[in-house]
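Reply to dn_fold:

You asked what the input looked like. This is it:
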Amino acid sequence: MGKLEESAADLRTAVEIQPGKADAHNNLGLSLFELGEFEDAVEEFAKAIGIDQDNSAHFNNRGLALYSLEKYEECLEDFDEALRLETNDANYYFNRGNALLVLKKLDAALVDFNKAIEIAPDVSMYFHSLGMCYQQLDMKNQAIEEFKHALSLNSHQVPSRYHLGLMYRAISTEQSPTYDLALKEFSAVLAIDRSDRRVHEALALVHRDMGDFMASVEALSHAIELEPDYPDNYFNRGQSLYLASKHEDAIKDYDTAEKLGMADASVCNARALAWTSLDRFDLARLDLSNAIALDAENPDTLFQRSNCFYVMKEYDSGVKDLTAALELKPNDPKHLYHRGLAYYAMDKYKKALKDFTDAIHNRLHISSVPDCWYHQGLCHANRGQHKDAVVAFTQAIAKAANRTNYIHERAKSCQMCGMYEDAVQDFSVVITRQPQNAHAFFRRAFAYKSLGRYDDAASDFEMAKELEPNNPELIVNYKRIHETECIELCKAGEEEV
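and this is what came back:
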């Protein structure tokens, strides 16, 4: 009848009247178990065992009470004894399997769950636990099959539907997306019971994976309503708000997560990204410094802070962070590339060249490779090594032919190497793309002059002056430039993009 207090009171009286009756102690233990009084339940089951050591149910029941007390090794002994006394009870195998599952003895758990299913193939929870075992073994597809089988036996079994949704999310790939299947399962769970914040969180993460960030925010808001003091909900909602470009709202959620006790490096890192998006690099740097204090072994945090230093033009500090990151993650191409950029900004071209070369050698991400070659070319050009610069710029152009500034810098280095035809060709490409580029006209004019094409040279000089009439550097004395190879208007890399 569910009147557990009355049941326990009557059974206590029964064992006082007749203390040697094993069934009375066992039943009292069951009532106490249902009341959540597990320690007292263990005592009653022990008394039942003391009276009747050949009853397998007494050992199984004490095992369940010990399991609820998280005394997993002790409960295993009781389940072993129950199975020694009764070898054909599916529940005993199921209970022992669950204990083995908690203890991460997964192969043994698989054996017990399969034995339970062999004895009683129509019990949905047996298939669910088998699925949980496969889930922990990271055998996702097998877990999915078991959860689906459990649901075929009991379509309202919420745990199976929830974990099936988790598995669909876990196996989703760009080539074979299964997010819609995960959404379907989580929505079905919520149709049965909306009171578990974990389901709302799981739904939110799927929405985030699918790029529907505001739907993710809405689901996490429901989770927060259910458990307003749980910090992870605020952190996750902050992540979704950040991805939705609502950076100030994201920062508020990160602050709340921190106030509720989530004071770890992940909060500082996430908030730093939001500050960076708001161009508040000073506050981002402060958060990242706190993150490093909390977790000094994370190279990604050092990398993020180095980017703040770079934007704030504190290049030496950025180099120190990237060097520390490389000590934690040697030869990381991204860190080498960015340290090279910092060295380049400090005019330390030799060191920059080495880092750029090492970055490419260590398989720098393909999106950064053109710029890495380009900066190698700039380093060579600024050291006067224009032949090497031409080689590097050519590599950059081969990988990103749409970057006009790459072609412009190669043209200038070709000119310095006496490759005037090549220089004219490159300057002409730049001018076709950027017909208002006075610098390109001015330098092409010198290339034409070196080729003896004086009319073309004069035309380009005049066009450069016409495009920037207030720039005195573009005004030349034709009589005095006869012996002048060219006039450099800016350092390599400083052309307006």
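The CA atoms of residues 128 and 147 lie 5 Å apart.
Hope that clears it up.
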